[in-house]
Amino acid sequence: MDVISLPYFPPAIPFPTVISTDFDLTIEDALIRQRLGKGAERVLKSPRNMAIVEAAKKELAELARPAAAWATFNIAGFEHDKVVLENGTRIGGGSVVKVICGATELVAGVCTIGPGMERKAKEYMTAGEAFHGIVLDLLASWAAGVVREQLALQLQFDHYKARGWHASIPLGPGESAWPIAGQQAIFDLLEDEVAAIGVRLEPTMLMVPIKSVSFVMGAGQRPLGQESGSPCEHCELKDTCTHRKKH
Q: How many Å apart are CA 54 and CA 52, to the nearest integer?
C-alpha cells in the first residue's frame, strides 16, 4: 500500500530523548469529590474520612515521583490509520491520524509517577483500610494523567507554538480504537530512556509502574487535525466514564 507523502517543509532537527520532572501535582478538594463520585458529599461528612483524604493528599506530595521521557521523530507520511516515520516505524491506530494529520513531526512520550503511591494503596487495602487505599489509588491515577496533560501543554506552547508551529492534542494506546498493543512502538522508539524513569513494558502491554501513561502528538508548520479539546473525546468509554474531563 502506498504511503501518502507529505509536502516538503524544512525538517526539524529531531530531539534526542528528554527526561522531564517539573510537574505540579497540587490537587483541589473539588476534584477529589468529583473523583469519589456521586456519594462523595455523604462519605466526606465523616470527620474520619475527611482526615483520610487530607492524609492522602500529603502522601501524594511525599510519594509521587513524576517523570516523563519524550523524543521527536520526523514523519514521512501516513498510511491508513498509521503514521509512517522516516526511520520506517509505523505507529498509531484509531483516531491518531485524524488528530495529527498535517504534522511533519511526531512526539512520543511515557509519563509516570513512580511505584510509591500504588504500593502504599495496596498496603492500606491489605490492612483493611479500604477507603484510604481507594482514595490514594484515585489520586495516583489522577496524578499520572496530569503529568501527561502538563507535558503536552509544555510541548504545545513552550516547544512548538513559541516558534510558530502547530501542535495536536495527545493520544495514547487504549484510547479510541488504538489498541493497547501500540505501547510497543512507543517503547521501541524511546528505547532505554524509558527505563531511566523507571518504567518497563510487560508482555501484556501494561506498563509497570501501573500509574504510567504513554502518548503521541503531532506538530508542524500548518494546521493539524485537532489542536484543542480533550483526548476523552476519542475514547470509546466517553459516554460511561465517570472521570471524563475531571483530570
A: 5
